[in-house]
Automatic annotation (TrEMBL):
Ranges annotated as biased composition (Polar residues): 1-21
Name under which the protein is recorded: Uncharacterized protein
Chain intervals for the UniProt region annotation (Disordered): 1-29
Residue stretches in coiled coil: 128-190
Keyword line: Coiled coil
Domain of life: Eukaryota
Amino acid sequence: LQATSSAFLVSSSPIHASSTPPRFPPLEISPEKARDVFLLSAEPTTALEGELQAALRREQDRNKSQKRRLVAMQSALVLNGTYVDLVRGQLAAQEKKKTDKKKGRLVGDGLPRLLTSREFVRRVTEFEQNAREKEEGLKQRKADREEKGAAMKEWKGLEDMRKARNKDIRAEYDVRVKAWEAERDLAKEERRRAGWKKPTLKGLLFSPIPKP
């Protein structure tokens, strides 16, 4: 086994998602069928024929039992293969996540590196580039937050003004309604129509200002 592609199964090294276990090719298993029906249904004419029929039944029962065990084992192997594929997928995701985390560190394993090492220089360059990208992203997000904060502050001020203005409009409306009610009552007593229509708020109130 050590000389095959499955050597990782007996190795002390950690198993990686790229390690491919041996595949089991499922075999086609025929369904159970009634066999030798004529031989088994015939009435034996001699003791030997009776013994042969009994032996044939035992062999058929043994074959059926073996086939059922074979079906069970093959089903278990197929399910185990599916399980292994799922675990390998999760392992690959964990390995990728671990690799992505290492991109943010200059030396991921904590071991010293020679400054003349090409690999180290490459990692330094990559680290500096990632750091610049993160810094620019933070600055942009900070600028967005500050801009949004200023816009929210301005919006709140305008909303307060809108609410105050609507409050004044409603107060003025109440006064006008009371004046109209007095005119209406007087018109009823004098048997005439009111001098003006009932006031309405339609089109007078300011609508809410959408948030930025």
